[in-house]
Each structure stands twice: as structure tokens, then as C-alpha cells.
């Protein structure tokens, strides 16, 4: 697909059954949250997503560098449409909580502005 943005990116997320986001470390990755906002079930590692991911509630969390756990997660979501739907629906609900206005407000609170 190459580098895509905007409508094409949203369509790619929306058409995917699963977003695989297995970074070894991220400080605050937005792409799993973007996928969640588009209704895509997410498989991710725990680092950087602690503020918005709950294992088997709104995403499937696997340890970094663990190919077996990642494969198990992919197979689980392939075989269990109900779990995939649950993660998708809960992911949408979680993503709605994370708006740019909320981020700015929180930053202002932290800075005491």
C-alpha cells in the first residue's frame, strides 16, 4: 500500500479485520488507537499503550518479541469472531475518549495553565 494518509488510511483500517502493532517499544503510539477508532481489532504489545489498552477488553496484548504469543493472538482472532467483534466495539468506545481537545486540556492541567 505504501505511505497512505487521510481517507485512504481510514479505509485501510476500516477494511482490515486486525491491526498488528507489535513494536518492541513505543512512547505513545497513535496507530493502534487510530485502528481502534475505525473499528479494527488490535493486537499490540503493552508499551506505550497503557493509557488506552486493556487486554481482552479492547485489544489483545502480547509480549514484545514473542512470536508464539503473537501467532496465538492472530489465530484466536481469526477463529473467534465474537472476540474480534468485542475488541472492535470496545476499541471504538475507548478511542472516542481520546480527542485532541482532551489531550490539550490535560496538558494544560499538567502545566498549570
Structure description:
The termini are far apart. The chain has a three-stranded parallel beta sheet with strand order 1-2-3, sandwiched between helices. α2 crosses α4 (81-95). α2 links the parallel β1 and β2 (41-44). It is globular and about 50 Å long. Helix content is 50%, strand content 9%. The mean pLDDT is 93. The chain has five helices and three strands, in the order αβαββααα. It is mainly alpha-helical. It has a single domain, classed as Glycogen Phosphorylase B (Rossmann fold).
* Helix coverage percent: 40-55%
- Rg on CA atoms, Å: 15 Å
Which segments are poorly predicted (pLDDT under 50) over 5 or more consecutive residues? Answer: none
Helix-strand sequence: HEHEEHHH
Main sheet: strands, sense, barrel: 3 strands, parallel
Distance between the termini: 42 Å
Question: What is the CATH topology descriptor?
Answer: Rossmann fold
Number of helix segments?
5
CATH architecture: 3-Layer(aba) Sandwich
Biggest sheet strand line-up:
1-2-3
Overall shape: it is globular
Average pLDDT? 93
Q: How many domains comprise the coordinates?
A: 1
Number of strands: 3
What is the CATH class name?
A: Alpha Beta
Strand content: 5-15%
Helix-strand category: mainly alpha
CATH homologous superfamily label: Glycogen Phosphorylase B
